[in-house]
Amino acid sequence: MNDNAKIIETVPEFLAHAVALEDESAERYEMLADAMEVHHNDEVAELFRKLMQYSEDHAQEVQTLASDMTLPNIAPWDYNWNCPGSPENCDCFNDALDYQMTPYQALNLAIHNETRGRDFYAWVSRESPDPEVRRLAGEMASEEQEHVDLLQAMIANTDLSREAPLEDLDPPNTPDG
User: Residue 42: helix, strand or coil by DSSP?
Assistant: First the structure.
């Protein structure tokens, strides 16, 4: 929890946060998919493209909600996230990213970030003084929970390898210590 997070008080302010969260999530999933394709990890690349589409669809829903209002321009450092950084774009993406990652590892990474998105929306739905912000945030928290449930079902219902990736017979060159 970010102790400096300021409560989101208005619908336009909330929707600006939601658009940023979903756009950033889609961009990150696209970046991950591209990285997996470069390394011929096509199964994980396809999974990240699917997750990217979910985020893009959610961003479009938010933009439709905001179509008749002017959203505030918020500098990246002024967002009122309740966690360090954007909820669906945490440092764990970089820490967990490995070009040999398995679909199981990719799904767990996605679950972690979708859970953070859900928790952000749930926090807003509890803390905002505006009833409409609380209602919208509650709906979005439920949608993010659906994403978490879908990802968990994918893990449970798919024959995914839980084992470590195979040894890389041609690893990237790294400078010696």
Answer: helix
Q: What is the pLDDT of residue 164?
A: 56
Percentages of the chain per state (helix, strand, coil), in multiples of 5: 65, 0, 35
The whole domain housing 118 covers: 22-68+83-157
Euclidean distance between CA atoms 122 and 133, whole angstroms? 11
Tens of pLDDT, residue by residue over 38-55, are 877 787 788 889 889 989
In a domain, 9, yes or no: no
The answer for residues whose C-beta is within 8 angstroms of residue 100's C-beta and 6 or more apart is 39, 41, 165, 166, 168
On whether residue 119 sits in a domain, the answer given is yes
Query: How many independent structural domains does the chain possess?
Result: 1
Looking at the domain assignment, is residue 127 inside a domain?
yes
Q: CA-CA distance, 93 to 47, in Å (whole number)?
A: 15
Distance CA 142, CA 136 (A): 10
Global pTM reads 0.79
158: alpha, beta or left, given left = phi > 0 and alpha = psi -120 to 50? beta
Which tokens in the block code for residue 7?
Answer: 């409560």
> Which one, of 89, 93, 106, lies nearest residue 49 by Cα?
106
Non-local CB neighbours of 24 within 8 Å, separated by 6+ positions: 86, 88, 89
Which two three-digit tokens encode residue 61?
A: 């829903």
Stretches in the chain below the pLDDT threshold 50: 1-3
Give me the amino acid identity at 164.
A
